[in-house]
């Protein structure tokens, strides 16, 4: 059966309208289901970000989130953990830090992990006894860091992978 030119136009508009209806309907239903899944790790990380006292810190983290890891990097093309902590502390808190994570650990006032506050530094040892990684505590057990595999990310400090290698935490001495 051959369609007349006018019917082809109406058929195209109908299919286009149907496609858009399906797209918008599916997007709106996803929005509702994602709210029901507030227990997910991503939702909890978003909650930690939303609960930050410093909106300047919030903007800094969102601006850097996803920047890839690069050893020795100090810009948006790539950054390492100590470089990220250095830039964050400099821009948000006006504090100067040494460049290496193990040296950064020497300039903090040590705190119990249960007393951490927004902006405190957290140090890890993934490779043995020496400190080789640093992150910045946010709240509710979440911290931000430059992960070697995921780049700058907000992560759950309570994950066993971090708990096993947690060494030291505290605030920068003034």
TrEMBL record:
GO molecular function: cysteine-type peptidase activity
Keywords: Hydrolase, Protease, Signal, Thiol protease
InterPro entries membership: Murein_DD/LD_carboxypeptidase, NLP_P60_dom, Papain-like_cys_pep_sf
Superkingdom of this protein's organism: Bacteria
NlpC/P60 domain span: 51-173
Family: Belongs to the peptidase C40 family.
Protein name: Hydrolase
């Amino acid at each position: 059966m051959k369609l007349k030119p006018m019917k082809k136009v109406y058929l195209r508009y109908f299919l286009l309208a149907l496609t858009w209806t399906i797209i918008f309907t599916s997007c709106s239903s996803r929005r509702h289901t994602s709210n029901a899944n507030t227990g997910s790790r991503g939702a909890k990380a978003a909650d930690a970000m939303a609960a930050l006292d410093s909106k300047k810190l919030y903007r800094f983290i969102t601006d850097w989130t996803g920047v890839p890891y690069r050893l020795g990097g100090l810009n948006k093309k790539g950054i390492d953990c100590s470089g990220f902590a250095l830039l964050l502390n400099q821009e948000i808190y006006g504090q100067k830090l040494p460049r290496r994570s193990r040296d950064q650990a020497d300039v903090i006032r040590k705190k119990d992990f249960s007393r951490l506050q927004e902006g405190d530094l957290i140090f890890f040892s993934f490779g043995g006894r020496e400190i080789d990684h640093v992150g910045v505590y946010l709240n509710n057990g979440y911290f931000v860091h430059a992960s070697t595999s995921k780049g700058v990310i907000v992560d759950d400090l309570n994950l066993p992978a971090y708990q096993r290698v947690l060494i030291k935490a505290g605030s920068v001495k003034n």
